[in-house]
Amino acid sequence: MNGGGMRPGIILLREGTDTSQGKAQLISNINACQVVSDAVRTTLGPRGMDKLVADGRRVTISNDGATIMRLLEIEHPAAKTLVDISMSQDAEVGDGTTSVVLLAVEVLKQMKPFVEEGVHPQIIIRHIRKASSLAVQKVRELAVSFDINTPEGEEMLLKTASTALNSKLIASHQDLFAPMIVDAVLSLSQEVDGLDDLRGMIAIKKIPGGDVRQSFLVKGVAFKKTFSYAGFEQMTKNFTNPKVLLLNVELELKNEKENAEVRIEDPEQYQSIVDAEWQVIYDKLDACVNCGANIVLSKLPVGDLATQYFADRGLFCAGRVEDGDLKRVAKATGATIQTSTNGIFEGVLGTCANFEEKQVGDERFNLFTGCPNSLTTTMILRGGSEQFIAESERSIHDSLMVVKRSLKSKAVVAGGGAIEMEVAKYLKEHALTIEGKGQLVVNAFARALEIVPRQLCDNAGFDSNDILSSLRRKHTQDENGTWYGVDIENGNIMDTFVAGVWEPSDNKSNSLASASEAACVILSIDETVINPRSQDPGAANGMMGGGMGGQGPGLSNTMAGAMDAVNAQKGGSRSGNLGNGVSYLKGRGGG
Fold first, then answer.
1. Is 97 labeled as catalytic in the residue annotation?
2. Three-class SS of residue 118?
3. Of 43, 60, 98, 482, which one is the catalytic site residue?
4. Known catalytic residue at 147
5. Which pTM was predicted?
């Protein structure tokens, strides 16, 4: 017999590992992505529906794509890519989180026939990237620039804010929220890098109860009254041009942290120790008063002694102020946060035109207004239920990000599916100049872009085939048809640019680039390996034997127990001769 028989099977992966490869698993990944997109498809546009997601502890009602994708807790490894691009779009632009998922999945859906027919994924990927690059370039060419320092520029910002709110739960209150959002972002743009810290400088406070129309904007800082001790009622609650001192210091008596031992020979000496502890806190309080401050805020607790001390001297104080609120007060008033009460001088104090404590609903709020540095703003949201206020906050965040992006790009495009139809027309014309399979791939990519106007029609209850046919004809035959999109109100087509449906050009550029990249990532996967979760926490270590000195954790508990019993009778154990009652030693080579 020769030695060239069958090779023995080599097992590389753990038992139970699921592996799939080739065309079948690629199509399976595309199908999984389609299922995910079906979950958010109906939330797109002004007529989009909301989703209710319950995780056993809380209920979330939202039509924000990124929020829904995050709450779904998707387990499929390939479909998780869609969650990533949705979150990326939310962080980068704020809006378009649903459309970016739909675009990515529609590109995959259009490419599926090519995969089934045996076209190599790398050819498809190469032409998707080329089509994506052309699409982004075309969006930049079509974008209409504006000057934010003119009345027309400010009107454009209002229109972009309103467009972002169109598809949200608070769409009917655009007239209230859009000007508030634009004011808040414009106040940030006064500083060179002000827009970069939008989340830190614009605070959104939620107060359940009341009507949504009772929401208002504070051009300054507002935060909820912190926990307070007795004596708080006697404090002055209203100041004009106050001096503000910000601390990261504890202003209360504390027991010694260490178990200190003090030996005394006379009882009077004990009193001197107690007096010294009191003198420390009084020195801190005197330093705060002597520096000329009217308002003292601290990130750490302000005790009952300090509260009464400040109240007697006409000062206002608050302890346990949240870190974000304290930083906003510092930014607005020009104060510097102190980590010690020693050496406080007037230069570290801030100021504002007015400070007051105001009742808002069931809560009391501390308001700093007329600040010298008008970067910071606070939006107070009211509403009937917590779910409604939470969704309002998400909607306002999206709109804030859109206005921020508009200020940075200083260019807008028309929404309502108009820009997608125009880019699709351009790509179809360009595809005719390409030879080979690339022509078909670019054409398919162009068809995928039509998912946005199609879904807008479907969600509004209109016949998408009729409206898309009208849009294709308008964009192809009419020179002035560039900005024609879906008319949601009348079930027809209209010039969405004239109608004021505007979006930042960066929004569309980022959507197209992210969707294409996600599609390419999923198409480039040729094998999926899913390792099983171990049932035994120590199984991973159990693979490696105990070494020379003993049996190690590779043994099952039953076997180890049996060996212990036998060895103990003989006066030893599996880790050496240790005597009765000692089973084994942990250490090198041991258990």
1. yes
2. coil
3. 98
4. no
5. 0.76
